[in-house]
Specification:
Shape: globular
Order of helices and strands: HEEHEEEHHHHH
Number of domains: 2
Number of helices: 7
CATH superfamily of the largest domain: [2Fe-2S]-binding domain
Helix content: 25-40%
Structural class: alpha+beta
Number of strands: 5
Radius of gyration: 24 Å
Largest sheet: 5 strands, mixed
CATH class of the largest domain: Mainly Alpha
Length: 208
């Protein structure tokens, strides 16, 4: 008579092996075949005043186009999910997370990165204020913080309200600490240099 006894060790071991086999098979079934990517498309990007003609996979994000194809590595890749703000750039003067925008969607728009805001001999007022107020530590988030601050100050000048704006009908919003903290909340600093960042932005608002 055949021995059909099953041990506890054998049961769990067999289950684990079966699960791994099924998972491997599922992954193989879902993987696209080699060479099945979308055909490349022509993209025209105007970055920091210079025109660039690129041929890209249509799924390429603006962030990857800037870093991998134009060597503009000042724009940082942090979370790559639009949650940290490290990749913030200005698109037609409006601050955007470049990881959430396809390069194709930015065709012929004005894109400004940290490299285009100022030069070493002529810094943008926000850049100068960040240096004077020590608004950075490791510096990884700083390009996104500065680009976001420039776009945020422009929003205030245009009279765009935030969740903490007391007077929505004002022609131009007051550059107050509460406004700066609310509007910059999408830019994360792992070093927690927030007090100095806020001070730098408030100072730059008076000099811009």
């Amino acid at each position: 008579m055949r021995n059909t006894s099953v041990t506890r060790r054998g049961l769990f071991g067999g289950g684990a092996a079966l699960g791994a086999t099924l998972q491997s098979g599922s992954a193989l079934a879902q993987s696209p075949p080699p060479g099945a990517g979308a055909p490349p498309v022509d993209v025209s990007l105007k970055v920091n005043g210079a025109q660039h003609e690129l041929r890209l996979d249509p799924r390429t994000t603006l962030l990857d186009a800037l870093r991998e194809h134009l060597a503009l590595t000042g724009t940082k890749k942090g979370c790559d999910h639009g949650q940290c703000g490290a990749c913030t750039v200005l698109i037609d003067g409006i601050r955007k997370n470049s990881c959430l925008n396809l390069a194709l969607s930015c065709d012929d728009l004005e894109i400004t990165t940290i490299e285009g805001l100022g030069r070493e001999e002529a810094l943008h007022p926000v850049q100068t204020a960040f240096v004077e107020h020590d608004g950075f530590q490791c510096g990884f988030c700083t390009p996104g913080q500065i680009c976001s601050a420039v776009g945020m100050l422009a929003e205030l000048k245009r009279g765009l309200p935030s969740a903490v704006t007391p007077e929505l009908a004002a022609a131009a919003m007051e550059v107050a600490e509460t406004e700066v903290r609310e509007r910059m909340s999408g830019n994360i600093c792992r070093c927690a240099a927030y007090p100095n960042i806020v001070a730098a932005i408030l100072d730059a608002a008076g000099k811009a």
